[in-house]
């Protein structure tokens, strides 16, 4: 018995040790960059690619399975890799710019992308934010990559071969390349882009090898010329070759610049003289520093992987578009006027998506980074005449709304300072009262909105109801900022009036929002299941909740709290029927709603993502607690098919991060986060001011998902929201979780979050 007891004790100790090991992993080791990569044009499970990068880095790198110019650069189900691509792609729908690729080959020279492609297996692939490696089976070559913000370090392990080569593809649409054998160097530029750039756009690149070249060649289009060291044309590339021994490692250091070849050389110095392993370690440390702002302690490893994989996505975009010149000054190439100018610039985000939770997440954990982004927005306005609503890297004509207002207002209302907020306020006023150079910049239909109070359904302006609802919220965001800046009363009053324009679209005959004709009538037989048309990538069931700033006003329109919560319930109980006639086909967002078995709830797209939290405004917070857990459990996994729609530059990930912590920013521009229920047993938040907030929920589980009691430090806390600045003071939130809803907690108006209608 004694021996058995000792054996049992040893097993227990081993299990505890293994469990402790799991808990002590670095945050970055939980990240799966392949989460969301099993996506197609007609069904998105994230539409991501594995970005090997630094947080908010200027240049990302990714293995390339898709053809040149294909927005789906890497798909998990692909069989071959065509190269390793420098990328700035925010989504496959926006596609890429500033791109070129590297591909090692052996034996018979293959330089065209189809011919050089190699079979690979995920079993011989390692994907981390700071490190990537894969075995290229056709060439018996292992390729490893790590990065800095603007440079990358490749380590390529070759077999014994008389003809080992590295192919550099500068891509089509106009490129240039030059081999400099005396310096083991290749320089060039690529111009391939998908829009949003001036005519003089170039991405200049440099590559330096640690092994002399024994052969050299360049190509233009499909013609390869040996010993020719320079090429310019529509599609250029280079091949350098050498003999290699078995297991010989060739190091390639590369960087690029939007400014000049000389600046690309300066950017290359980010790698210094460090070895590949040292650069891997430096990148890993940086990732741990950024991801370590949130420390999660729990025994559910799958959920830990999901959490940190989502957090990784939230700090990828927008990317830094600025560089450091020879004098150590911050400069950028302007995608608006083509000039090189001083100051910050960021690019690669759509505010229609990211104003909702991504920017509030930055304001909570990374305000110093968002301060840089706000300075960058000032430069966007100065150089482009408007603030971008979708930047990649300059103005892009996609989506609706004027949601830069939310991004600017929320930052200032959350305490960010040190930049010219008055210039940004000027930019907001300009954007709110003018149509821009394209439909998605400024406010399309502003003349109708400012006179009628809505963009009419029958004046040939698409997605008019969505525009109206978003403009009304954007006016609220500007109103909040105007009051904070002590603007003239007349100006403030006008914004205050316009932010109530959402009421003009409430169609009492269907109990939801709809389009409205110019003469004031509602279109007869309006179909609330029709996607598009009056709305953007959704229908009336999704957009009717887009009254972030005045949920009480919406409750009043719908006939009171019981009717309101009944309508919320109906979102989940109504079958996922749809009308796709506006698009003429089932778009992927429709399909993603249809297959999730959650009724009309379409979490795969952004307009409805806050809706779950609205039960807190109407006395039934336990339904928020239930549904937020359902969405986290059912729609997020740390797997290649781990999202339920487009991840969209950190927004869908930010929803998960906030929800897992137990609160969500329903109305950016206010100081409040609306409560849900924490997913993990313990989460420690580390803020830039040095304070910590610990969220304890020791009883939380799949069954114990309801909040019985909440204590802030030692005091019982009965409100359905928490304040941003109180959070910043640190302390403890102690959740007592239970398997049955507490039907008394948070049920009276004193507990409800902010609504304009009840704030006066």
TrEMBL record:
Location of region: Disordered: 739-760
UniProt biased composition (Low complexity): 747-760
Cofactor(s) it depends on: Ca(2+)
GO molecular function terms noted in the UniProt entry: carbohydrate binding; peptide-N4-(N-acetyl-beta-glucosaminyl)asparagine amidase activity
Domain of life: Bacteria
GO CC terms: cytosol
Domain called Glycosyl hydrolase family 92 N-terminal: residue spans: 30-257
PROSITE patterns on file: PROKAR_LIPOPROTEIN
Domain Glycosyl hydrolase family: 263-738
GO biological process, one term: glycoprotein catabolic process
Keyword terms of this UniProt record: Calcium, Signal
Pfam families (UniProt xref): Glyco_hydro_92, Glyco_hydro_92N
Signal sequence, start to end: 1-20
Oligomer and partners: Monomer.
Name the record gives this protein: Alpha-mannosidase
